Amino acid sequence: MAAAEPARRRRAPSRRAGESAEQDTNARRRGAPPRRSGRPGAAAAMRAAAEQLAELLGRFPESVSSLKPTEDGWVAQVEVVELERIPDTTSVMASYRVALDEEGELISYERTRRYSRGMIDRLT
User: Fold this and answer.
1) E-strand stretches of 17-105
2) How many structural domains are present in the chain?
3) Mean pLDDT for all residues in the chain
4) What is the side-by-side strand order in the sheet with 92-101?
5) Segment 32-58 mean pLDDT
6) Which residues does the annotated region (Disordered) include (predicted)?
């Protein structure tokens, strides 16, 4: 049996112009590039939309199907299982429009659509 190869270290990404070593280190620690404003990045906004909607609905979202920046923050479309059925393709899903402010706090949500999981969009 062959011996396992030692793990290779990943090369750290180079800093952008104007970034200090401390900013670069902190950005990598957080897993995101440094922000020039207080506005959260897309990944943080997606997590915030899913987590805050889950807290309000009592159901954990399946996915975030869209995310768009706005002047006031972010708008996300979040998919949630509303009624689990067997087989899984007959479960009832809902799509929620979630608005987040500039700090990533949920300011509104509304259910925009209900559909069965197995349903696909068709061109009209």
Assistant:
1) 63-70, 73-83, 92-101
2) 1
3) 80
4) 63-70, 73-83, 92-101, 106-116
5) 83
6) 1-44
